[in-house]
Design goal:
The protein has 359 residues and is α+β, with helices and mostly antiparallel strands. It has helices at residues 79-94, 117-127, 178-196, 235-242, 253-263, 317-337, 344-352, and strands spanning 7-10, 13-22, 33-38, 44-54, 74-75, 100-110, 132-138, 143-149, 152-157, 160-164, 166-170, 205-215, 218-228, 250-251, 274-279, 284-289, 293-297, 302-311. A hairpin with a 4-residue loop joins β17 and β18 (302-311). The longest helix is centred in the C-terminal third of the chain and has 21 residues, at 317-337.
Amino acid sequence: MKDLPSAARFGGRVMSGLVDVTSDPEALDSQGMWALVAGFEGRLTCARFRDVRSLPRRAAPGTRWNGPGRAQWTTSLDRDAYTAGVRRIREHIAAGEVYQANLCRVLSAPVTPGADIEALADLLAERHRAPYAGMISLPEHGIEVASASPELFLRRTGRVIESGPIKGTGRTAADLLDKDHAENVMIVDLVRNDLGRVCATGSVTVPELCAVEKHPGLVHLVSTVRGELRDGAGWGELLAASFPPGSVTGAPKASALRIIEALETAPRGPYCGGIGWVDADRGTGELAVGIRTFWIDRAHGRLLFGTGAGITWGSDPDREWEETELKAARLLAIASQGGPEGHRAAVRHLITETVITGG
C-alpha cells in the first residue's frame, strides 16, 4: 500500500501538516486547528494540523475511489436478527426500562489495499452532498474516516452551544408518522438534559422543534437545542456531558446503552460517534454525529458503514428494517460502484441479496 498522508477536510477547509495527536479533550481548548474522531465506544483521537487552506471545488486530478464489488457487502445483523432485536427492545419498553433505543448494524466489505479514503470523500462530496460532510485520515493511528453526515452533534461559538438532533426518517414528509414526532421530542428532552449538565442554569432552549429537512433520497425531522456554556467548562466537560450523542443511543441514555451492548454484535467505531473540527484559537468548533459514515479497518482489510433506526413502543419491526435499508442504499451504491443515481437493481442487490455474516 502506498503511504497515505495525514489530512482532514471539514467545513470548507483542508488541513495538512500534522503537528501532534492526543486523546486528551482538554487540548481542544489550547491552541491551533484540530480535527477529531470520537468513537462510539469512547476512543477519542484529536489531531492538530499546521496548515489550513480553503477546500478546492474539485478533487485533485488522478484521485479515484476503488470500491468493493456490489455483492461483497456483509451485515452484522440480518433481517431476522434485526427484527428480533426490535421486538426485544419493545419488551424492554413494556417493562419500563427504556422509552427509546437505537438499534444499529454494521455493513462491511473488502477494501482494496491502496484505496484512499480521501478519494471516497471526493466521491461523496460530488454525489451525496451533506451539511456536515468531512474526512480525516491518520493512517499511522488507524483512523481513516469519510462522512456525509446530515446531523449536527455540537457546534460551539464562544460560549454558545448548539445541537441539532435528528429523529424521524421517511422517503417524503408524508411518510413521517406520529411515532417519528414523539421520538424526536423524547430525544430533544434528553439533549436538553445533557446540555443542562454543562450550560448555565436557565440558558438551554429549543428554538426549533421537529422541522422537516430534505436530504438526498429522504427527509428527516430535525430540532435545535441551544445553551450557554457555564464559566470554567470547556470541551472536556462538554463531551463528558453529551457523549455519545442522544439521537443514536436512546432515552434514558444509560439504559439504552446497556440494551445496545446486549443486542448489537459489532462495535460501532466512528459510526454514531462525533466527527469534526475545533479552532482552539477562535473558540469555535463543529462536530457531526457520525452517521452516513464510512471508515477503513486496515488491520482486517475492511471498509465499514453503519446504519440503524430508533425503536419505540410504536415501532413495527419490518418498517424499522426498511428504514435502515433506506439510509444505507444510496451511499452503498456510491461507494461500491461510483455509479449515478437510479441503479435500483444494483442497490437492491447490495442491501437485500448480500451475503450475511454475524460479525
